[in-house]
Request: fold
Amino acid sequence: MRNRLATLAGAVIVFLVPVLAGSLDAQQPAQQTPPQAQQPQQAQPQQAPPGGRNNVQVGVPDGRGGRAAGGGRGRGRAAGPPAGPAPRNAQGRVLLAGATPKDKGVWIGGGGVGNRNTLPYQPWTKAVSADRAINELEPHTRCKASGSQRQFLTPYGAEIVELPELQRVYIFDIGGPHTFRTIYMDGRSHPTNLSPTYYGHSIGWWDGDTLVVDTKGFNEGFWIDRGAAPHTDQLHTVERYTRTDSVSMRYEMTVDDPGAYTKPWSGTMNLRWSAGVELFEYVCQQQNYAHELMVGGGTRVDRTTIIVP
Reply:
């Protein structure tokens, strides 16, 4: 019994010694660093993360695009080369794409040609335009094809491909539902009985250096712009594409829709050439981020990373 008590007392002493020592240390004043030993901390420069926003071309997935057109900076794009003359083919006619098939690029617009303050609305279209300004439930965000100028108003723009041997011009809507527009350049007229479609039926011809495109047979399932200009299936458009230099193109559209407006109207916008960018697969599906913008849950879509495999 006496030996057990002695063993227990020893264990208690062994346990309490380090505890008491730690308690005494905690009561001692903290050791002060001598003033001469204190070194000022230098601010470290912040490093941008690899592939961060400083190097991202907004609207073009990182690694898929080249320099922007026009030599200016805008929306995160790098400055492009200075403008030169518009490229031409062997016959001297201006080209709407690169000087050679290896010169990739797409056309990107901005703003649109319709102004809510000046369009000759009928009463019902004025009300629809005002509603669209508040409720931006655009079919394009629900993976529907968009004809007319709306093709160029996506963050990714559109690619124009000329095929003289087929006497056709194609416009590929990059940020859309895997659709493209066909412009017939063989001198044909519009069919008598057109089935309304998103892109309508387009015939084109050259007026000097300007491509003129006449289109009829639209349906009413898309917006021709971002919402300012409602239309009906009576819509008839005439577009004029005039490439003014290597990085710029003037786009003019005349709208004649007696079902929506009191008279025809016209507008223009500038398209810029985004060099080094080519068509890529855009996945338009139910789980993209557009629904957040449609219902008001989000104010922007982050396109700083590649959105496709």
Summary: The longest strand covers residues 265-275.
